[in-house]
Design goal:
This protein is α+β, with helices and mostly antiparallel strands. The chain has eight helices and four strands, in the order E-H-E-H-H-H-H-H-H-E-E-H. It starts with a strand and ends in a 19-residue tail after the last helix.
């Protein structure tokens, strides 16, 4: 079975969902999992004002409560020049998928940790290059690919694919068989709940009503 995992490096619920996805990969090594950056705020000019910080903190606390994932609420990435633009980190993932495809999930986790735990600005190409180096990708090679028109187009194609399949928020996990989209989960699910859905889909391809988990219904996680 091939699964499409629609995510975004700057989506807090996706960060909360990352340990669940790790367990899924470990428990079902034969599942073909394709990670796609769906892009919930590419090109956003949103600055982290006092009101927006309060908005983020509210969601981060909810994610922490459900998932146990740690957040550093000091948000050290905030600056006068920072915008909550999710395109650069999505493009960085696309670069890794082209050059080191087996490292994409590891790189996604590195970006999430850098942003939510360490407060690093993952809209910055130098920060992203440093993270890519951690998984064995030479900085200059990363930056050359990152700034290429090819990768900008590839990233935009991922956003478009997400829209074509009707993905409205992140995380979303689905199958695509013979042109038929079947959603396993839209939003956060604990692993045991997701496991039941995956097991059932492996045998009957029937997706139960419980597929609707918890996800943001605002700009921080969807459209």
């Amino acid at each position: 079975m091939k699964l499409y995992y629609f995510t975004d490096p700057m989506c807090s619920w996706c960060y909360g969902f990352s340990p669940v996805m790790k367990k899924l990969k470990e428990s079902y090594p034969n599942i073909d999992l394709q990670i796609i950056s769906g892009g919930f705020a590419p090109g956003s000019k949103q600055k982290v004002t006092k009101e927006y910080k309060d908005f983020l903190e509210y969601h981060w606390r909810n994610v922490n409560l459900r998932s146990g994932q740690y957040f550093d609420h000091s948000m050290k990435f905030v600056s006068d020049s920072f915008h909550y633009d999710t395109e650069p980190s999505s493009r960085a993932l696309a670069v890794v998928q082209r050059i080191l495809p087996t490292k994409d999930f590891e790189f996604l986790n590195l970006m999430q940790k850098a942003f939510y735990v360490e407060g690093r600005d993952i809209t910055n190409d130098v920060v992203l290059a440093d993270l890519a180096e951690e998984i064995g990708l030479e900085k200059n090679a990363f930056l050359e690919s990152f700034h290429s028109e090819e990768m900008k187009l590839k990233t935009a194609q991922g956003f478009q694919f997400s829209k074509q399949l009707g993905v409205k928020g992140f995380p979303t996990l689905l199958t695509l068989e013979n042109g038929v989209v079947k959603v396993l989960t839209h939003g956060f699910q604990p692993f045991e709940s997701l496991k039941e859905i995956v097991e059932e889909s492996l045998t009957t391809m029937f997706i139960p009503e419980s597929a609707n988990g918890e996800s943001c219904s605002d700009v921080s996680c969807g459209f």
